[in-house]
Design goal:
Blueprint: H1 2-9, H2 12-26, H3 31-76, H4 84-89, H5 97-127, H6 133-164, H7 169-196
Length: 219
């Protein structure tokens, strides 16, 4: 039974070609009859095998995207010390009312991001195993790109403030830890997009996933 299942799933067309060829010899079927049938079966088998191989690639790509999203949510969202929003919250320790207003606005954005990212992961988990993998992969890739792009806006804003305003060294050190791990994530995301371009249309260029900059003041 197990052998039969393997033949059906993987080697049905070589087996069928072999059977027809043997029958053709035994019953002395004309070659002009049997040859077109064998060629058709071979071509059909190769097409089906190619489709199944691409589906497996898409499944792996979708799973990898889910892993990246879960890592992003776990390391850079919520109450993680590497969340840019947690780092921004530390600015309340500075006697600067203007920074406080900006930090309060970021606090509201953090709640939206936490909800958005959590919902995104839940939807991905529920859609794993669907048939139209290409559509789902493209949709979720674009949404995750939007999440990371908008998240990077806050990273860029913090960087610009840190370059202009005197910020405690402890906050800068924490930000640099964030930069180190975040940029490693960005590199993995870029590599995944590059891999995806060989099996699906992404419409996203790897460099569009931007790196975080370290705060280096001169003079």
């Amino acid at each position: 039974m197990y052998t039969f299942k393997i033949i059906v799933n993987r080697g049905w067309y070589p087996a069928l070609i072999t059977v027809l060829a043997v029958l053709g010899v035994l019953y002395r079927w004309p070659i002009e009859w049997i040859a077109p049938a064998l060629i058709f079966i071979l071509a059909l088998g190769l097409v089906v095998t190619g489709i199944k191989a691409r589906e497996r690639q898409l499944e792996r790509a979708l799973f990898k995207l889910q892993q990246l999203a879960e890592y992003f949510h776990r390391r850079f969202m919520g109450d993680s010390t590497l969340s840019i929003f947690v780092i921004i919250d530390s600015l309340f320790n500075i006697d600067n009312p203007k920074l406080w207003d900006w930090a309060r606005a970021c606090d509201m954005s953090q709640r939206i991001f936490n909800s958005w990212c959590g919902s995104f992961i839940n939807r991905m988990e529920s859609d794993i195993g669907v048939t139209k993998l290409t559509d789902y992969l493209s949709t979720y890739l674009n949404e995750f790109w939007q999440i990371t792009s908008q998240y990077h806006d806050f990273v860029e804003q913090f960087y610009e403030i840190a370059m202009k305003v005197e910020i405690p060294q402890e906050t800068i050190d924490q930000y640099h830890k964030f930069v180190l791990e975040y940029n490693a994530f960005v590199q993995n995301f870029r590599e995944h997009i590059t891999e995806l371009r060989s099996i699906a249309r992404t419409g996203i260029e790897p460099p569009s996933i931007k790196l975080a900059q370290e705060v280096v003041k001169t003079g």
